Amino acid sequence: MLGWNIFPWVAAAVFVLSLSSAIAALCKRESRSIAIACSTTAIALFVLFILSLWMTLERPPLRTMGETRLWYSLFLLMAGLFTYVRWRFRWILSFSTLLATVFMAINILKPEIHDQSLMPALQSIWFVPHVSVYMFSYALLGCATILSIGALATRSDKFDEAIERLIYGGTAFVTIGMLTGAIWAKDAWGAYWSWDAKEAWAAVTWGLYLVAIHLALRPSTYTTPWQKRTYYIVIIVAFLALQMCWWGVNYLPSAQESVHAYNQ
Amino acid sequence: MGAMKYKAFVIEAICVAATVATALILQYFVGNFPVEIFAFPLNIVTMALWGVVVYLLYKNRENSTVAKSLLSIHATWLSLGSMAATGIYLGLQREPNATSWLVVVGILFTLTHLLLITMRGWRTAQGIRWRFTLLHAGLIIALGAGFWGAPDRVQLRTMLPTKSTITHAYHLDGTMTNLGYALQLRGLDAEYNENGTPTHFEAAVNIDNEDVTLRVNHPYNRTFSEKIYLVSIGNDASYCVVEIVREPWQWASLAGIILLLAGAVMLFLRGPRHAANPKTK
Fold it and tell me: Is the CB of B265 inside 8 Å of chain A's CB atoms?
């Protein structure tokens, strides 16, 4: 069984395959199939490793920050590939590879205890859907943020459709993650929502992505330059709030009392 | 911006500033919002009155400046902004104070705006806008149940020593209350990891002459509105701590959450109404 000890080798193979995919996408239009094949192989390898780790640990590898980073790296590669296949942005694979590599590198440089223990509070049917849906949404919204930065830098319209679709998809999954968390919280702690530090930052993130969606609904956002810039900036700020919700909150004094403290 | 729009914007800004200032003054002199006095039936009465006022505003939306302002895009930005601001305000506190006047005013404003725009936009000439309605009505019900139901929510804790019969519990402020039934701990079962952290623990408890097993994530539904939770067990397995939550509005909250979930699934499946394209927008 493939345990945590072989992760550096898996990460190296995923990196090489993803980098090859990114280079193939950048080089020639004809090498598109090579880019897709390399990227798909990297994702398949990553999925195999996570499934194997799941079986080795005898629990879903979603408990620690390190484990959520694994899923985030995987979903980033998937979101990057989806964006490349769907909208043919040749450079998106470079960014999704870079971001996924950063998170894989953090897991190698700052390994966490990946033992079999799963505290009773996490032994719930909501555990896997809540965390994995959130991680998937983070990846979609990460891609939307990269495209927004690209749109701000190039002042081009060509990213707008992809940004809007990614924001809709990402916000839908953020909403599902937040609501499954609320149902779970009622079973675990007796309240759907208690304004715990993590929940408060989840509300901030959700509110900001709703601002982005409502901005996208307004035709003037796409015809008035300053409104368009505001739209991209809101997406970037929302992604910063999302980082705060995911891991930044652990560094706040308010998180010391958090009921979500087990993910630190 | 035209002169009329500018004037309306200034009036809206003054109203917001005055409301925030009033909330801050009340917070300073009165303390937190007195949630307890709005317990049933006063919360039902005030909610009904609020509903009537919002409905009348909606009916007079063509002539009422207040209704126009509450239905404007500025009100949307303000309610979403107040949601984010509330999150930041509470997210930075060690003990979040969700009953401050500012938070209460922000939620009431958001609910009012949501109800007005839902009444206006739930259907068009083409038919019912399902996604819009599920998302907005779901949020109104979930948020509204939490808001109007908060005064009726009771959270109690008590320690159950083995074999002792307990008939009382404590509010979070330490005051004791009679439960109206008896709790008796019959047995405890716990398993631990090598590092001493628990992997599993459960308590066999007799509740109101019924034997039940309490586990984390598996509360016992004693009545329609009451659930009993296992919080912890003593290291020497001689006692456990249970929490009793009475929340009559919990099913309304769940209904709102389910509607919102359905709306979120539609948000993903349908995507943008028409994806960004400057030529068509």
Answer: yes
